[in-house]
Design a protein that fits this description.
Layout (H helix, E strand, L loop, with lengths): L8 E10 L2 E5 L5 E5 L20 E10 L4 E5 L4 H8 L6 H23 L1
Parallel strand pairs: 3-5
Antiparallel strand pairs: 1-2, 1-4, 2-3, 4-5
């Protein structure tokens, strides 16, 4: 019986994490994987930034193997994935936040040394 098909939006429960992706459990004894490349268009530092163990998350089915009851899934460009992306500092964003603080510290340090 074909319970799932490519393009379906389904909800899965996060059952585990590996460096390369997130494992999910679905109804009808299906299991799935969201590969790290299907989490975001941005660099993914840690797959755990996209959910917690036991969370139920929506995802899109990319590929179905009914014989093995396995699904390959994606959250890239979904409402859930984009929301998680918005909460994560990507690229140079952390540096942009920290740079003014470092500059102020160095200027203060320079001014103290200059007075001495």
């Amino acid at each position: 019986m074909n319970c799932y098909k490519k393009g379906d939006i389904v909800k899965g429960v996060i059952t585990g994490f590996e460096k390369y992706g997130i494992f999910l459990a679905f109804e009808n004894d299906y299991v799935g994987l969201i590969h790290i490349s299907e989490l975001s268009d941005h660099y993914v530092k840690s797959v755990t930034e996209y959910g917690d163990l036991g969370d139920t998350i929506p995802c899109v089915i990319v590929e179905v193997d009914d014989n093995l009851k396995k699904l390959k899934c994606s959250i890239k460009n979904t409402a859930y994935g984009l929301k998680r992306d918005s909460l994560i500092d990507h690229g140079f964003a952390p540096l942009k936040k920290q740079l003014p603080i470092w500059m102020d510290e160095k200027i203060k340090e320079y001014n103290i040394e200059k007075k001495a």
